[in-house]
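S.,

Sequence below, as promised.
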Amino acid sequence: MSRSVLVTGGNRGIGLAIARAFADAGDKVAITYRSGEAPSGFLAVKCDITDPEQVEQAYKEIEAEHGPVEVLIANAGVTKDTLLMRMSEEDFTSVIDTNLTGTFRVVKRANRGMLRAKKGRVVLISSVVGLLGSAGQANYAASKAALVGFARSLARELGSRNITFNVVAPGFVDTDMTKALTDEQRENIVSQVPLGRYAQPEEIAATVRFLASDDASYITGAVIPVDGGLGMGH
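The prediction came back faster than expected:
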């Protein structure tokens, strides 16, 4: 049965791969994007998740076209990497506001319809960095680690309503962002990954779609690493 699916930050990279995976399975897929071009084939809604009014308006558009959101993938995120002593207040708070508080906004709004329906699937996209840590990414790591506590608290709070909350923690993924690294940087990263390669965005998407499927109906509060073994033990 076709479901109403929302992927935030679904216009490129991991988010776009996730959106395509659900669309290929026959779901009605909406994406939000903040800048750049909207990909074709989806209901694309421009939305900055740091603005509560834009989040509310985006949901109204999606609900009018596809009905209440039944599957939410909170993927939108930003980085502002720098060492702690150079990190400004704005560097820190802006990353937290998008990656953590923005996720709170979209999850809370989606749960309105999920509570009425007494069912729903929420998957938060974290990062291996949130579990492992990374020099120069204290703001990003803090925001991504916080998603674990957020998801597990909601898994306990709303499990009785048949709403599941899970976290996917990707490792290094072959996207435009990582392609911008130098060959030396890429080689250094790969040398730390037991499987010896970057992930493909489709590999992250497959895990996300599994968590939103009937096969994962008894999984909630889980953190699933898709990182080639980079963060194992965390």
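The mean pLDDT is 95.

Coffee later?
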